[in-house]
Amino acid sequence: MSYNVTWEEIKSHYRVKDRNFPMLSEDMPTFMGVPHVKKPGDLKGADVVIIGAPFVAGAKGKYAGVDKSEWVMAPKRVRQQSIRYPSGYVQDFDLDIFEHLKIIDFGDAEIPRDANLEPTAENILKAQAAVESKVGAVLDAGAIPIVIGQNSPCGSYAIAKPIAERAAGNVGMISLDTHWDSKPIDWLTKDPRIAGSGNWKAKTYEFHNNFTIPNLVEIGERGMLESKEMVRNFLAQGVNFIPMWKVRTELGIEGLCEELRHAYDGTDAVYVHFDMDVIGGAGPAQGDILGDLAEPIGMTDYEVIRIAHEIGRRGLTGFSFICIPPGSAVIYRLIVYVITYLLVGLVENRQSE
């Protein structure tokens, strides 16, 4: 599927055409029109900060069978689609998130151009450092970073690392994914320093002792993709593994939400990571837009949004997205919903204190 929605068409939408909002570039507004800040010193007082991380792995023109130029556009396209919503009012809850939270857009991390064109280990580390710098500044300001990324390490480990470095104690993780991303070494560079697309989670636990596997809630994997040795190793260490089969046959969405508690048990921080290939072919768009990443028994859009809302109600330290399926406007809107309903939960959390 080819994404052919232009910025001019979005601007002409009846909910958009008469409004003014900050622009990060000529064709990229801020997320939902929130204020834009450029300097870490301007983050003071923020509750939530949006960051883009336009990085795609792979040495050739395609990633997972889809052209890299499609994948890398995710931060821009999510922001473009977000602008169709004229306010932060969520009618499901009769609540306007902007009345309760200060949300700002910190722009995109300065990913070096060569990192996407020539993904050597050194270029990837520079890209990772660019994301780390922004995430660290947000955490130091006392806010929650939400990173709209596309591949690892820039949309995963680059958020986990600064959280681990600042946490006083253990760190829990809630991960939605089709893959464990826990292979021994990065498939692209073969460099042990790189927390890449297939191994970033393994590197997180290798590099940071305060990320504890009994506080990992791993949701969504299924089928025949992983080695039994790797999965059984995680199980032996106490991971809370919830495959989609268990969600469908035993837990349901209510039971699944209850399982999130393990990430909070005795931890001082919780990192949340949504790898959006978890939706597989379950929608709202056809699974084939994910290319080689599409798998049956995917999570539905409602389930992803509901989990995000429940996480907001419990609280979190940082949040990131990768593998946002390219080529579908409604998928980019799904990311907007995930963020918005997460923030509704965060408001409810604060109101209950």
Description:
- There is one protein chain.
- The protein has helices spanning 7-11, 68-71, 74-82, 113-117, 121-140, 157-166, 200-207, 228-236, 244-259, 301-314, 329-352, and strands spanning 23-25, 28-29, 48-52, 62-63, 66-67, 89-90, 95-96, 103-108, 144-148, 171-176, 211-219, 240-242, 269-275, 318-322.
- It is an alpha/beta fold.
- Strand 10 (171-176), helix 7 (200-207) and strand 11 (211-219) form a beta-alpha-beta unit.
- Helix 3 crosses helix 11 (329-352) and helix 10 (301-314) runs parallel beside helix 11 (329-352).
- The model has no long low-confidence stretch (mean pLDDT 96).
Here the CATH topology equals: Arginase, Chain A
Query: How far apart, in Å, are the first and last alpha carbons?
Result: 46 Å
CATH homologous superfamily, by name? Ureohydrolase domain
Query: How does the helix and strand content classify structurally?
Result: alpha/beta
Tally of domains: 1
Strand content: 15-25%
Helix content: 25-40%
Give structural attributes:
alpha/beta; single chain; Arginase, Chain A; 353 residues; 11 helices
